[in-house]
Protein backbone atom coordinates (compact mmCIF):
# COMPACT_ATOMS: atom_id res chain seq x y z
CA UNK A 1 0.00 0.00 0.00
CA UNK A 2 1.16 3.55 -0.68
CA UNK A 3 2.87 5.45 2.12
CA UNK A 4 -0.10 7.79 2.46
CA UNK A 5 -3.16 6.08 0.97
CA UNK A 6 -6.44 7.89 0.54
CA UNK A 7 -8.71 6.67 3.33
CA UNK A 8 -12.39 6.41 2.46
CA UNK A 9 -15.05 5.85 5.10
CA UNK A 10 -17.91 3.98 3.42
CA UNK A 11 -21.25 4.36 5.23
CA UNK A 12 -24.17 2.17 4.21
CA UNK A 13 -27.06 0.01 5.34
CA UNK A 14 -26.79 -3.61 4.23
CA UNK A 15 -30.45 -3.46 3.08
CA UNK A 16 -29.95 -0.35 0.93
CA UNK A 17 -30.53 -0.98 -2.78
CA UNK A 18 -28.23 1.91 -3.76
CA UNK A 19 -25.33 0.44 -1.78
CA UNK A 20 -26.00 -2.97 -3.34
CA UNK A 21 -25.96 -1.54 -6.85
CA UNK A 22 -23.08 0.81 -6.11
CA UNK A 23 -20.70 -1.88 -4.88
CA UNK A 24 -19.44 -2.36 -8.43
CA UNK A 25 -18.01 1.18 -8.35
CA UNK A 26 -16.26 0.57 -5.05
CA UNK A 27 -14.76 -2.62 -6.49
CA UNK A 28 -13.58 -0.78 -9.60
CA UNK A 29 -12.00 1.95 -7.48
CA UNK A 30 -10.10 -0.69 -5.52
CA UNK A 31 -8.98 -2.37 -8.75
CA UNK A 32 -7.71 0.89 -10.21
CA UNK A 33 -6.01 2.04 -7.00
CA UNK A 34 -5.00 -1.17 -5.18
CA UNK A 35 -2.19 0.48 -3.21
CA UNK A 36 -3.50 4.02 -3.03
CA UNK A 37 -6.95 3.62 -1.49
CA UNK A 38 -7.98 2.14 1.87
CA UNK A 39 -11.64 1.62 2.78
CA UNK A 40 -13.15 1.70 6.25
CA UNK A 41 -16.66 0.27 6.24
CA UNK A 42 -19.30 1.65 8.59
CA UNK A 43 -22.98 0.81 8.95
CA UNK A 44 -26.10 2.96 9.32
CA UNK A 45 -29.47 1.92 10.82
CA UNK A 46 -31.42 3.22 7.84
CA UNK A 47 -33.53 0.05 7.96
CA UNK A 48 -33.21 -0.43 11.70
CA UNK A 49 -37.01 -0.66 12.01
CA UNK A 50 -38.54 -1.73 8.70
CA UNK A 51 -42.05 -1.99 10.14
CA UNK A 52 -41.98 1.75 10.69
CA UNK A 53 -39.86 2.80 7.71
CA UNK A 54 -41.62 0.64 5.12
CA UNK A 55 -44.74 -0.88 6.68
CA UNK A 56 -45.94 2.53 7.91
CA UNK A 57 -43.90 4.86 5.72
CA UNK A 58 -45.04 3.16 2.51
CA UNK A 59 -48.58 2.34 3.68
CA UNK A 60 -50.12 4.63 1.05
CA UNK A 61 -47.90 3.16 -1.67
CA UNK A 62 -48.49 -0.52 -1.10
CA UNK A 63 -46.40 -1.14 2.01
CA UNK A 64 -43.72 -3.79 1.69
CA UNK A 65 -44.99 -4.96 -1.70
CA UNK A 66 -44.94 -1.41 -3.04
CA UNK A 67 -41.46 -0.84 -1.71
CA UNK A 68 -40.32 -4.09 -3.30
CA UNK A 69 -41.69 -2.93 -6.65
CA UNK A 70 -39.82 0.35 -6.21
CA UNK A 71 -36.55 -1.47 -5.47
CA UNK A 72 -36.95 -3.68 -8.55
CA UNK A 73 -37.70 -0.61 -10.68
CA UNK A 74 -34.45 0.96 -9.47
CA UNK A 75 -32.47 -2.22 -10.17
CA UNK A 76 -33.99 -2.65 -13.64
CA UNK A 77 -31.64 0.09 -14.87
CA UNK A 78 -28.59 -2.01 -13.89
CA UNK A 79 -27.25 -5.06 -15.66
CA UNK A 80 -24.69 -6.05 -13.01
CA UNK A 81 -27.08 -7.03 -10.19
CA UNK A 82 -30.47 -8.68 -9.88
CA UNK A 83 -33.33 -8.38 -7.39
CA UNK A 84 -35.54 -11.34 -6.52
CA UNK A 85 -39.31 -10.87 -6.95
CA UNK A 86 -39.76 -11.79 -3.29
CA UNK A 87 -37.32 -9.25 -1.84
CA UNK A 88 -39.43 -7.02 0.43
CA UNK A 89 -42.65 -8.31 -1.13
CA UNK A 90 -42.40 -11.75 0.48
CA UNK A 91 -39.23 -11.57 2.58
CA UNK A 92 -38.96 -8.45 4.74
CA UNK A 93 -36.22 -8.45 7.39
CA UNK A 94 -37.40 -6.76 10.57
CA UNK A 95 -34.13 -4.88 11.04
CA UNK A 96 -30.71 -4.38 9.51
CA UNK A 97 -29.20 -4.17 13.00
CA UNK A 98 -28.82 -7.93 13.33
CA UNK A 99 -26.72 -8.40 10.15
CA UNK A 100 -24.80 -5.23 10.98
CA UNK A 101 -23.76 -6.71 14.33
CA UNK A 102 -22.66 -9.90 12.58
CA UNK A 103 -20.60 -7.84 10.13
CA UNK A 104 -19.06 -5.69 12.85
CA UNK A 105 -17.96 -8.86 14.66
CA UNK A 106 -16.32 -10.14 11.46
CA UNK A 107 -14.71 -6.75 10.92
CA UNK A 108 -13.30 -6.79 14.46
CA UNK A 109 -11.80 -10.22 13.81
CA UNK A 110 -10.12 -8.87 10.68
CA UNK A 111 -8.74 -5.86 12.58
CA UNK A 112 -7.32 -8.18 15.26
CA UNK A 113 -5.67 -10.49 12.77
CA UNK A 114 -8.03 -13.39 13.42
CA UNK A 115 -9.53 -13.14 9.95
CA UNK A 116 -7.32 -12.94 6.89
CA UNK A 117 -7.44 -9.46 5.34
CA UNK A 118 -5.78 -10.50 2.09
CA UNK A 119 -7.89 -10.56 -1.10
CA UNK A 120 -9.58 -13.87 -1.81
CA UNK A 121 -8.81 -15.41 -5.22
CA UNK A 122 -11.34 -15.20 -8.00
CA UNK A 123 -14.06 -13.03 -6.42
CA UNK A 124 -13.15 -9.48 -7.30
CA UNK A 125 -10.31 -8.93 -4.86
CA UNK A 126 -12.54 -8.86 -1.78
CA UNK A 127 -11.13 -9.69 1.61
CA UNK A 128 -13.06 -12.31 3.56
CA UNK A 129 -14.86 -9.55 5.47
CA UNK A 130 -15.72 -7.65 2.28
CA UNK A 131 -17.02 -10.85 0.72
CA UNK A 132 -19.12 -11.47 3.84
CA UNK A 133 -20.64 -8.00 3.49
CA UNK A 134 -21.37 -8.60 -0.19
CA UNK A 135 -22.80 -12.06 0.46
CA UNK A 136 -25.23 -10.59 3.01
CA UNK A 137 -26.49 -8.12 0.44
CA UNK A 138 -26.62 -10.68 -2.34
CA UNK A 139 -28.57 -13.19 -0.29
CA UNK A 140 -31.28 -10.67 0.44
CA UNK A 141 -31.59 -8.83 -2.85
CA UNK A 142 -30.86 -11.68 -5.28
CA UNK A 143 -32.05 -14.57 -3.12
CA UNK A 144 -34.82 -13.04 -0.98
CA UNK A 145 -33.32 -14.57 2.17
CA UNK A 146 -34.02 -12.96 5.53
CA UNK A 147 -30.53 -11.89 6.57
CA UNK A 148 -31.81 -10.66 9.93
CA UNK A 149 -32.22 -14.30 10.96
CA UNK A 150 -29.38 -16.11 12.71
CA UNK A 151 -29.65 -19.25 10.56
CA UNK A 152 -29.05 -17.23 7.38
CA UNK A 153 -26.06 -15.48 8.93
CA UNK A 154 -24.67 -18.84 10.05
CA UNK A 155 -25.07 -20.15 6.49
CA UNK A 156 -22.99 -17.22 5.25
CA UNK A 157 -20.36 -18.03 7.87
CA UNK A 158 -20.30 -21.67 6.77
CA UNK A 159 -19.97 -20.77 3.08
CA UNK A 160 -17.06 -18.39 3.75
CA UNK A 161 -15.40 -20.47 6.46
CA UNK A 162 -15.77 -17.79 9.12
CA UNK A 163 -15.04 -18.53 12.81
CA UNK A 164 -18.67 -18.55 13.89
CA UNK A 165 -17.90 -19.17 17.55
CA UNK A 166 -15.73 -16.05 17.71
CA UNK A 167 -18.42 -14.00 15.94
CA UNK A 168 -21.01 -15.09 18.48
CA UNK A 169 -18.57 -14.34 21.30
CA UNK A 170 -18.04 -10.77 20.08
CA UNK A 171 -21.79 -10.25 19.87
CA UNK A 172 -22.43 -11.77 23.27
CA UNK A 173 -19.70 -9.68 24.92
CA UNK A 174 -21.10 -6.43 23.56
CA UNK A 175 -17.95 -5.67 21.57
CA UNK A 176 -19.78 -5.82 18.24
CA UNK A 177 -22.43 -3.47 19.67
CA UNK A 178 -19.71 -1.03 20.76
CA UNK A 179 -18.19 -1.10 17.26
CA UNK A 180 -21.59 -0.42 15.72
CA UNK A 181 -22.11 2.45 18.16
CA UNK A 182 -18.77 3.90 17.00
CA UNK A 183 -20.15 3.89 13.45
CA UNK A 184 -23.14 5.93 14.62
CA UNK A 185 -20.84 8.42 16.31
CA UNK A 186 -18.83 8.71 13.08
CA UNK A 187 -22.09 9.24 11.17
CA UNK A 188 -23.01 12.14 13.44
CA UNK A 189 -19.51 13.58 13.37
CA UNK A 190 -19.46 13.67 9.57
CA UNK A 191 -23.15 14.58 9.23
CA UNK A 192 -23.72 11.62 6.93
CA UNK A 193 -27.05 12.13 5.11
CA UNK A 194 -27.81 8.53 4.13
CA UNK A 195 -26.72 5.35 2.37
CA UNK A 196 -24.33 5.02 0.70
CA UNK A 197 -22.06 7.92 1.66
CA UNK A 198 -18.32 8.08 1.09
CA UNK A 199 -16.27 10.38 3.32
CA UNK A 200 -12.83 11.45 2.11
CA UNK A 201 -10.12 13.83 3.25
CA UNK A 202 -10.96 13.63 6.94
CA UNK A 203 -14.55 14.67 6.35
CA UNK A 204 -13.87 17.57 3.96
CA UNK A 205 -15.31 15.67 0.97
CA UNK A 206 -18.63 13.84 1.09
CA UNK A 207 -20.13 11.84 -1.77
CA UNK A 208 -23.70 10.73 -1.15
CA UNK A 209 -26.05 8.50 -3.09
CA UNK A 210 -25.87 7.17 -6.63
CA UNK A 211 -22.54 8.82 -7.48
CA UNK A 212 -20.97 7.84 -10.79
CA UNK A 213 -17.60 6.13 -10.94
CA UNK A 214 -15.83 9.00 -12.72
CA UNK A 215 -16.74 11.33 -9.86
CA UNK A 216 -15.32 8.89 -7.32
CA UNK A 217 -12.18 8.50 -9.39
CA UNK A 218 -11.74 12.26 -9.84
CA UNK A 219 -11.95 12.84 -6.09
CA UNK A 220 -9.37 10.14 -5.37
CA UNK A 221 -6.98 11.39 -8.06
CA UNK A 222 -7.21 14.94 -6.72
CA UNK A 223 -6.30 13.77 -3.22
CA UNK A 224 -3.44 11.64 -4.53
CA UNK A 225 -2.00 14.56 -6.49
CA UNK A 226 -2.79 17.18 -3.85
CA UNK A 227 -3.12 15.59 -0.39
CA UNK A 228 -3.92 18.98 1.18
CA UNK A 229 -6.88 19.56 -1.13
CA UNK A 230 -9.83 21.07 0.68
CA UNK A 231 -7.88 22.43 3.64
CA UNK A 232 -8.32 26.02 4.74
CA UNK A 233 -6.17 28.47 2.80
CA UNK A 234 -5.29 32.16 2.84
CA UNK A 235 -5.50 32.25 -0.95
Describe it.
- This protein is globular.
- The chain has 9 helices and 4 strands; from the N terminus they run E-H-E-H-H-H-H-H-H-H-E-E-H.
- It has helices at residues 17-32, 50-56, 63-75, 97-111, 128-141, 150-159, 164-172, 175-190, 213-225; strands at 6-12, 37-43, 197-200, 205-208.
- 48% of the residues lie in helices and 9% in strands.
- Strands 2-1-3-4 form a 4-stranded mixed sheet.
- The two termini are 33 Å apart.
- It has one domain (6-225): Glutaredoxin, CATH 3.40.30.
- By secondary structure, the protein is of the alpha+beta class.
Assigned CATH architecture? 3-Layer(aba) Sandwich
What is the CATH topology assignment?
Answer: Glutaredoxin
Q: Tell me the structural class.
A: alpha+beta
Biggest sheet: strands side by side, in what order? Answer: 2-1-3-4
Q: Rg, please?
A: 18 Å
The proportion of strand residues reads: 5-15%
- Total of DSSP H or I helical runs spanning 4+ residues: 9
Summarize the amount of helix as a percent range: 40-55%
Structural shape? globular
Q: Name the poorly predicted regions.
A: 231-235
Tell me the distance between the termini. 33 Å
Number of strands: 4
CATH class: Alpha Beta
Number of domains: 1
What's the SSE pattern?
A: EHEHHHHHHHEEH
**Residue-averaged pLDDT, rounded?**
92
Largest sheet: 4 strands, mixed
CATH superfamily: Glutaredoxin
Amino acid sequence: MAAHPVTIEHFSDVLCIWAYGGQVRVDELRRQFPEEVAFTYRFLPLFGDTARRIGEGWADQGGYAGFGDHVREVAAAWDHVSVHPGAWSETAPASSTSPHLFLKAAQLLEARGELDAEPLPGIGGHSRFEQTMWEMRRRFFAGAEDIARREVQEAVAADLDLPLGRIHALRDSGEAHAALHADLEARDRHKVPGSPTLILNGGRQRLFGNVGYRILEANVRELLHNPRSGEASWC
